[in-house]
Amino acid sequence: MANAISKTAYYTLACRAEDARKPRPLCNDTYAARFMDDEARRIWSNFQSFDRPNASNAARHQIIDALVQEELDRAPDARVVVLGAGFDTRAYRLRGGRWLEVDEPAILTLKDAKLPVTEAKNPLERLPIDFGTESLARKLEPYQDPRRTHVIIEGVLMYLSTAQRRDMLTVLQQVFPHHAVYCDLMRESFQREYSADLHAVLASMGASFQDMTDTPESLFLEAGYTSASATSVPQRALELAGKRVPAFIVRRFMQPVRDGYRIWKFERR
């Protein structure tokens, strides 16, 4: 792939492909298997033993699925932008939306070959960008829209510096003045206490977390967003798996786990 962070797209892809094979899948992304080539299997071999983080990856995907689908049920023609789309297949699975996938040229070329846009059941465009050299604002400018837009940023923000995150939000506010953001945010203490082993493998592939903090949501709040919801990924993973007692324990007695890794929905009005 074009850069080290793109390797994480293979990891999250493999989590969803493995999930879809289970008798009780959490997100059931049946399209993920299309991309499981030799490179994907090679990278997955480094992560197969991380049962809980792998389940959390599938659960976080399902949480965002549900949040976005709820919005699309109300407004089926809404624009949905997936930044750092990786192997996202929501345009093929969800009902409604005018979809725009934004990512590096190499990954989108691979997606075009294995899952063409013509197979999507909703309108779908793919927008290649070299994040290191090209302007996100200039790339998105043709799509500027005052109507309410939905922006998915999954598995991306923890790899960006605070300055890069702030710049991204500035661009979104300029191009889509009325939008909702769906993203995963991890506390630094959660990463240190519960995700250090996984992060070590990611870091060995060149994809290290940056500028972690215990209040990652503050960046959005300071930028003028309001919080619409915050869903615990570990708790939801247990609930989706039918593990009611462990889910209850996490909810009532394990606040650092419950709140350490969440899917946030932010509104910018």
Automatic annotation (TrEMBL):
Q: Which UniProt keywords apply?
A: Methyltransferase, Transferase
**A GO term for molecular function:** methyltransferase activity
Family matches, as Gene3D superfamilies: Vaccinia Virus protein VP39 (3.40.50.150)
GO biological process terms, semicolon-separated: methylation
Q: Spell out the SUPFAM superfamilies in the cross-references.
A: S-adenosyl-L-methionine-dependent methyltransferases (SSF53335)
Please tell me whether the keyword Methyltransferase is annotated for this protein: yes
InterPro entries for this protein:
Ppm1/Ppm2/Tcmp, SAM-dependent_MTases_sf
Q: Which residues form a coiled coil?
A: none
> From which domain of life does this come?
Bacteria
Which PANTHER family does the record cross-reference, listed alphabetically?
A: S-ADENOSYL-L-METHIONINE-DEPENDENT METHYLTRANSFERASE YKTD-RELATED, S-ADENOSYL-L-METHIONINE-DEPENDENT METHYLTRANSFERASES SUPERFAMILY PROTEIN
List the protein's name: Class I SAM-dependent methyltransferase
The organism is Corallococcus exiguus
